[in-house]
Give the backbone structure.
Amino acid sequence: MTTATEPIRRYGGEAGERRMGSYQEYGRYSRRYTDRATRTGGTDVERRSRGLGWFSIGLGLAQIGAPRTLARLIGIRDDDETRNTMFAIGLREITSGIGILSQPRSAGWVWTRVGGDLMDLALLGKAMRSEENERGRLAAATAAVAGVTVLDFMTGQQLSKHGNGAGTRYEGGRAAGSGQRSERGIHVTQAITINRPRNEVYGFWQNFENLPRFMAHLESVQVLDGNRSRWKAKAPAGATVEWEAETIEDRPNELIAWRSLPDATVPNSGSVRFKDAPGNRGTEVLVELTYEPPGGKVGALIAKLFGEEPEQQVKGDLRRFKQVMETGEIVHSDASIHRGLHPAQPPEDLSDVELLGSRGGSEGATRS
Amino acid sequence: MKAVCWMGKRNIQVEDVPDPKILNSHDAIVKITSTAICGSDLHLVNGFVPTMERGDILGHEFMGEVVEVGRSVRNLKVGDRVVVPFPISCGACLACTAGMFSLCENSNPNAWIAEKLLGHSPAGIFGYSHMLGGFAGGQAEYVRVPFADVGPLKVPEGLTDEQVLFLTDILPTGYMGAEMCDIEPGDVVAVWGAGPVGQFAIASAKLLGAERIIAIDRFQYRLDMARERAGAADIINYEEVNVQDALLELTGGRGPDRCIDAVGMEAHGHGVTYAYDRVKQALMLESDRPLALREAILACRRGGTVSVIGVYGGFVDKFPMGAILNKSLTLRAGQCHVHRYMRPLLERIQQGEIDPTFVITHRLPLDQAPKGYDMFLNKEDSCEKVVLKVA
């Protein structure tokens, strides 16, 4: 853990205790990985969705394991055809259940349940017409399935509306490789290993003016004086967002932390930590970023800037950082130099494409 | 320039496209003299590799003459005659420095797509989908070659294009398939697939000291080539005999010591499992049909090795994990780390230990590429390998 006894240069003073990016918060990068990112209950909808998942699996197992009992329960004649149908439906239920529980985006799987419900209702309707079945029990079963259908439908709709992204299932979005949007803002943590010595990797980042070379959304960073810098980021539709930031901690070859000054349109903070990878595997770089987009129009623009997956964008930035450190430049392909989809064919004219520095790849960028 | 383009599933055309340009300082532009159609190109043609775009230039087996170099290129100069490995490798990342060139960590600008499917991205590959970089391929008059100091190998005087062209992919791929088997004296090696890669796997297993090699395919002309040219002692036509029975009979009931899958995701077969895989693949419930791989795992001797060089892209169904565990099998796989095999294999070619030209059955000019694709796909006219001549 970071302690006050370590020889560190600290910037920012009291301001550090005041804002969301308080100094203590930067201590999190040295947290143990064992206690990070516990999977939590998530929202009510997600809890209900998981409940439906388990329900699916339970029902499926019952249908496969005890088809006769179940057939009697819902009032259907117990014969080979029923048992086969039960088996098939059971498999479907288990598939839906596993899908809902294991897929980060469970909305699609919940919709498979809705499809299954409609199928079941049709089968029950057919069974109703047969004299050999107990209509009373069938009616009860039909009512139960209809109820479940409504629940499935509502859950599916809510999950679809909320995007049901992978990151939303982690509290704090603090796991490496995750990103999250919450009321407190967007948090992203990403890690990469770079096959260069630690002092070199640190040295490149320490000069903030290098950042736009690999951070796709940054237009420029200007170092103003000792610990202050002016950042300019590209926003959608040719707009730009500017703010000033201060370096609040700089431990050579170990860590750099910064945050925007109080008047920034988009309060943000970040830290990057450098560590020797074991066995001469280079340098591990761990980045944590927090953005607090304001409400309203600007906020919407910022949200769009980060697309659906802010972690993807930071991941792309780090990948480009690695390319610059290891090969000296950002690697282009005939397709990657274009924004959006383009066939793998050479460009007609180089002036048509945005080559270079940081502007080559469109990874994680919002495509409108 | 003219280039062979993927215009959709089962739709290959020669198009007029812009000439390649230097995009990175380590690039070279190569004027192609010879290029070949690879069996793995057929997976693209058949639409089994995701993230293809209409207009993508195909081709990852090519050679030619350097006509332009970027400002950082040191090892090549204009006029050099080179063969170019199919994986694009930076030479600087951990994977490259460890000799795992097909796992280059920097050469795929679209790594994020591959990561979604595979967890981590492999190297970028010429003309092989956007998931693997969106690089224009070399079935064209010219091609841009990134990291030109790392990949291209200068061809010594006195060797023809056809003698060295397959150093780009299929010869090293077949060789790596045999090398991953760690062949010991007395080993019987079974090779599924007698396409060009299978032929070179057979020839390489022989070079590496296999006792006896068994080739498995359904086309008699390919099996004949395996026996007469590559060095297989026995052949099994799976449309005529049961492969498991035949292998047990040929190996005294032990099963082959080493099994090489040179087939990949579009395996053929028959019976219920073949129908099952075709249906699942058609419904997008599995991306790859692993019939050859399942068969290799089941046939393999207890404690043996299964080496996979056929291309798989995504997910397979009914994978016999139980056999792998309970028979203590070693499963090895990989896209070929071409760079590390080029020079040693070039030496073997120069010393006459292997003549890779034996697989070539058809030579066509570049503008007849669509015809070449059709012949190769439909196995017309005993087609084994099509070389396209440019210039």
Residues 1-41, 163-177, 358-368 of chain A have pLDDT under 50 and may be disordered. The beta strands of chain A are 9-10, 178-182, 185-194, 218-225, 228-234, 240-251, 255-260, 268-276, 283-291.
